[in-house]
């Protein structure tokens, strides 16, 4: 696959499975937001693929905006303190915000982000993620739309990176051990 085949172990979710599931999720969103405005907020950079495909699968008109955030320090699951690298350009007061993510792992990024966005006075804040990992179930986070619940493996593709690579794989797969152990 795209010259990255040797780095992959197996495919977990195919391109067809992704688009079929996105069509289902988009239909739910269309129904839930009927008669209301909708602002999709993508979290850079992982959410780029799912934002692009979800937005095109929707029939409901929507606006799109982006945030880039970064966890403080080197620890991956430390305090949950997050810093904004790029903020929204939209004033979300009274807006229906739907945060779009590629993956929820520890849930710390989104826990913080939901709190941050709620403080700006939106009409609603909901979450849509392509992938949810098991750890996220331990966090007090109400995820309205989930593409796939996947096991706690090292996954890449469809926006998910390892050291900034593999985001452009059109499917979601596991990374071969030799890649992240060298
Ligand atoms: C990844 C992923 C989510 C977040 C999930 O982003 O895209 O945004 O981590 O992790 P959590 O649930 O444990 O907080 P990352 O910070 O790697 O940036 P990226 O999107 O640019 O890859
Ligand atoms: Mn991300
Ligand atoms: Mg990343």
From TrEMBL:
The keyword NAD does not apply. Belongs to the purine/pyrimidine phosphoribosyltransferase family. The lineage of its organism: Bacteria, Bacillati, Actinomycetota, Actinomycetes, Streptosporangiales. InterPro entries: HGPRT, Hxn_phspho_trans, PRTase-like, PRTase_dom. It is found in: Cytoplasm. Residues 17-162 form the Phosphoribosyltransferase domain. It comes from the Bacteria. This is Hypoxanthine phosphoribosyltransferase. Keywords: Cytoplasm, Glycosyltransferase, Magnesium, Metal-binding, Nucleotide-binding, Purine salvage, Transferase. Its cofactor is Mg(2+). It comes from Streptomonospora nanhaiensis. Pathway: Purine metabolism; IMP biosynthesis via salvage pathway; IMP from hypoxanthine: step 1/1; Purine metabolism; GMP biosynthesis via salvage pathway; GMP from guanine: step 1/1. One of its GO terms (biological process) is GMP salvage. One of its GO terms (molecular function) is guanine phosphoribosyltransferase activity. GO terms for cellular component: cytosol. Its EC number is 2.4.2.8. Coiled coil: none annotated. It catalyses: GMP + diphosphate = guanine + 5-phospho-alpha-D-ribose 1-diphosphate; IMP + diphosphate = hypoxanthine + 5-phospho-alpha-D-ribose 1-diphosphate.
């Amino acid at each position: 696959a795209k010259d990255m085949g040797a780095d992959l172990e197996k495919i977990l979710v195919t391109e067809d499975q992704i688009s079929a599931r996105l069509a289902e999720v988009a239909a739910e969103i269309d129904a839930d937001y009927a008669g209301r405005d909708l602002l999709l907020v993508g979290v850079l950079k992982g959410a780029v693929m799912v934002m692009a495909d979800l937005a095109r699968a929707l029939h409901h008109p929507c606006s799109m905006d982006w945030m880039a955030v970064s966890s403080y320090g080197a620890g991956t699951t430390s305090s949950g303190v997050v810093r904004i690298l790029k903020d929204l350009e939209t004033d979300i007061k009274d807006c229906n915000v739907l945060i779009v993510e590629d993956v929820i792992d520890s849930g710390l990024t989104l826990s913080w982000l939901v709190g941050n966005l709620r403080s700006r006075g939106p009409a609603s804040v909901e979450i849509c993620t392509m992938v949810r990992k098991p750890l996220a179930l331990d966090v007090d986070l109400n995820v309205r739309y989930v593409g796939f619940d996947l096991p706690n493996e090292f996954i890449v593709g469809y926006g998910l990176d390892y050291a900034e690579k593999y985001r452009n794989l059109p499917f979601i797969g596991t990374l071969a051990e030799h890649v992240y152990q060298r």
